[in-house]
Amino acid sequence: MPVRVTLDIMLARRKVRAKDLAARIGLSETQMSLLRTGKVKGMRFDTLSKICLILECQPADIMEYDANENDLSQAEE
After folding, report:
1. How far apart are CA 55 and CA 62, in angstroms?
2. Predicted model pTM
3. Which long-range contacts (CB under 8 A, 24 or more apart) does 22-26 make?
4. Which of 18, 47, 63, 65 places its Cα 20 to 30 Å from the Cα of 53?
5. Number of folded domains that form the chain
6. pLDDT tens sequence for the chain (77 residues)
């Protein structure tokens, strides 16, 4: 998947535990773990907004995009 979640890096920079972030934004620890490890296919904008608000960051600080020409062919199918 070309979009990678780099939430762990921002959590370390801000010295916030994933468990604490999950509690503050209303996610279960299991959901937070899946998000941190990149095992999710998507994220709701309201969840993204809450994460960015608490960590005082921008969406680009917790996600990266790896360009891949194959992404265009998948969209055409």
Report:
1. 10
2. 0.82
3. 24/50, 24/54, 25/50, 25/51, 25/54, 26/50
4. 65
5. 1
6. 588 899 999 999 999 999 999 999 999 999 999 999 888 888 999 999 999 999 999 999 999 988 877 777 765 55
Specify the pLDDT at position 35: 92
What is the domain extent for residue 50?
3-61
∠61-63-69 over CA atoms, to 5°?
Answer: 135
Tell the residue number behind the tokens 């490890």, with chain if given.
37
Question: In angstroms, how far is CA 25 from the centroid of its own chain?
Answer: 13
- CA dist., res. 62 & res. 25, Å (int): 16
